[in-house]
């Protein structure tokens, strides 16, 4: 895809038309690309378990998270309702010495490791499958494609594409020898980390898969590690939530559609490269991938421990289960993905 940075509207329209899955699985579809993840693919994924070692791919949900208040997103607020002190003082009123603790958490569903549901993004008032956005998501929630519909589906073959390690900190040392964009000024990227502002192209994804000796196929859940999360853990959150970041180039829309993957997730806040590649644009790849391709997108996943293990044993495929919470009518969900090798 040729990218004209001065024409976001035209580029989005062309990419949406070329990669649309509207009607592919019927007018009533609520799963989008998860339709690619069938029973055979789950059996294939389950057969990848050899050592039994498991990895949580979630950040911790606490007040030390990345959020800074953009769009009223806050870090989780954890409050105890009953404590050991209450039990020890006999304030709970239970018989024969039994006591307990209870707690509550308040948080935006997109505040940390999460899935973007199909009702999260619209294009010119259209939601997934061409439905009118105002009839899909109302003040009562997502009435059609709520995240609860996906709760039993997100389990299968996971594939890690460690672009950070393969392409290199300078953004030039990959097999294709090119960088996606110029890195954001002031970025300091260590080995295994892409600089902020680096656009990951289809060529980078392909080069990474080839270097790792792994293939991407229909129904796979693809995880793209840029290394940005490792950097902010070292240097501080900074503008991780909403600021500059490495990420997928808008030009990968065709690959996301044509590869027939079931879902994709990254270790960054916004999945796609930031700043975005167009003038006066905001998350243009989301605008194509969610409402037109019907793609399930994950953000802020912690891929570092898994990546170290994959680099050590040379195996970049695994069983992955990453079910969203079945929150009725939600357009996103926190998740604790588990990869098992």
TrEMBL record:
What does the record give under GO molecular function?
A: arylformamidase activity
Q: Which GO terms describe its biological process?
A: L-tryptophan catabolic process to kynurenine
User: What is one Pfam family matched by this protein?
Assistant: Cyclase
Superkingdom of origin: Bacteria
Q: What is this protein called?
A: Cyclase
Q: Which organism is it from?
A: Streptomyces dioscori
């Amino acid at each position: 895809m040729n990218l004209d940075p001065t024409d976001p509207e035209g580029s989005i329209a062309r990419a949406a038309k070329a990669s649309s899955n509207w009607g592919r699985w019927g007018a009533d579809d609520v799963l989008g690309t998860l339709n690619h993840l069938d029973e055979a693919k789950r059996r294939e994924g389950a057969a990848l378990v050899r050592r039994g070692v498991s990895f949580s791919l979630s950040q911790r949900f606490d007040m030390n998270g990345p959020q800074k208040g953009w769009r009223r997103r806050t870090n989780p607020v954890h409050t105890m309702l009953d404590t050991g002190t209450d039990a020890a003082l006999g304030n709970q009123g239970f018989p024969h010495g039994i006591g307990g603790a209870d707690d509550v958490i308040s948080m935006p569903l997109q505040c940390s490791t999460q899935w973007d549901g199909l009702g999260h993004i619209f294009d010119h008032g259209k939601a997934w499958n061409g439905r009118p956005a105002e009839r899909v998501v109302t003040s009562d929630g997502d009435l059609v494609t709520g995240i609860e519909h996906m709760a039993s589906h997100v389990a299968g073959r996971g594939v890690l594409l460690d672009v950070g390690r393969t392409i290199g900190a300078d953004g030039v040392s990959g097999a294709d020898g090119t960088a996606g964009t110029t890195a954001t000024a002031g970025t300091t990227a260590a080995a295994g980390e892409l600089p902020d502002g680096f656009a990951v192209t289809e060529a980078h994804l392909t080069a990474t898969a080839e270097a790792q000796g792994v293939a991407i196929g229909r129904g796979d859940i693809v995880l793209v590690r840029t290394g940005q999360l490792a950097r902010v853990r070292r240097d501080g959150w900074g503008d991780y939530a909403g600021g500059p970041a490495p990420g997928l180039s808008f030009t990968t829309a065709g690959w996301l559609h044509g590869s027939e993957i079931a879902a994709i997730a990254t270790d960054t806040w916004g999945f796609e490269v930031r700043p975005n590649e167009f003038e006066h644009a905001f998350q243009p790849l989301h605008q194509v991938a969610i409402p037109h391709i019907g793609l399930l997108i994950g953000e802020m996943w912690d891929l570092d421990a898994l990546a170290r293990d994959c680099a050590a044993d040379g195996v970049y495929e695994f069983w992955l289960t990453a079910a969203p919470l079945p929150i009725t009518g939600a357009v996103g969900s926190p998740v604790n993905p588990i990869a098992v090798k």
